[in-house]
Amino acid sequence: MNNFSLNTPTKILFGKGQIANLGKEIPADARILITYGGGSIKKNGVLDQVLKALEGRPVFEFAGIEPNPSYETLMKAVEVVKAQKIDYLLAVGGGSVADGTKFIGAAARYTAGDPWDILLNRGAQVTSAVPMGCVLTLPATGSESNNGAVISRLATGDKLAFFSPYSYPTFAVLDPTVTYSLPARQVANGVVDAFVHTVEQYLTYPVQAKVQDRFSEGLLLTLIEEGPRALAEPENYDVRANVMWSATLALNGLIGAGVPQDWATHMLGHELTAMHGLDHAQTLAIVLPSLLAYKKEQKRAKLLQYAERVWHLRDGTEDQRIDGAINATRAFFEQMGVPTRLSGHGLDGSAIPAMIAKLKEHGCVALGEHGDITLEDSQRILEAAR
After folding, report:
1. 160 strand-pairing partners
2. CATH number of 11-178
3. How confident is the model at residue 38 (pLDDT cuts 50, 70, 90)?
4. CA triplet 34, 27, 166: central angle to 5 degrees?
5. N or C: which end of the chain has fewer CB within 10 A?
6. What would be the CATH architecture of the domain defined by 182-384?
7. Mind listing the pLDDT tens digit for each residue in 1-28?
């Protein structure tokens, strides 16, 4: 097991009715900006619950944060933070709202230059941020309890990430009942996103981190079991609770502590989103099976472990078991209704050279846990995913 330093400071309020308790987590004298997306929280009553919990306090709202939060929109929120002297942010939504709110908090206090530099420097120059909490409505990204965010810039077609210890939410409310009304597409995306987050930290190479491996395998098995049930039984509390908690644990730092991590699937996926506007999870489902097949020699030991422990494949040759595990992964995504090839979204791959150019521009020239995925490798992986 590799050395690690782990800090997961976000307080979790999990379960039905927990939104009513969020006021206790925010300073009594805070001027609060609630951030959210397209307004579904008004239709399903979540915003009313939040406002009731904050009754009597100075509360402002900022709506319109996109599924892939844009720099242009978020900078408008930064103006509101400064004009209204906001000193606490409350993200109410899914991972995109949480990501966007992290950027708003950092950009509002950024004095080192253009706020876009936060993304160009991956958060290295962030020295302060407006504190924030989160009411999660879409389990997927784990952003409600980590310090990372991914932001797009429409003007340039860029999609970049930043990380900062100042960007951890101070608390997150996870009420599984608020996910009952989610469209099937968002439920499926959330399951796939959590699954790939787990795989990115698990399917690398062995370092005898047995605890992290078992945690990861437990999350994968839970998602395989409960993902289809979440689609078939949308108001099954236990199912929704397990999916929600799995998504949080997949990226709160726990399973990635002390182990090598990959993230090449995410880097390629970001370019697919920036180029074609696909949902984040849709891009991961396209890239991952192709990448696993391409890198199966480097990942052989962990792929065999994955085949046995997650997919219960114990017969046949090593290659047959590895191929079986990759095929089972693809089949699971398809079962969730998420296509695993570019053609499933009506794309022919003609934009792959442009995506490779963007990868080069963003410095993504040595990806993967070994840093051995070159631009040429990335192109082959994307071409195999047509």
Report:
1. 151
2. 3.40.50.1970
3. confident
4. 70
5. N
6. Up-down Bundle (1.20)
7. 999 999 999 999 999 999 999 999 999 9
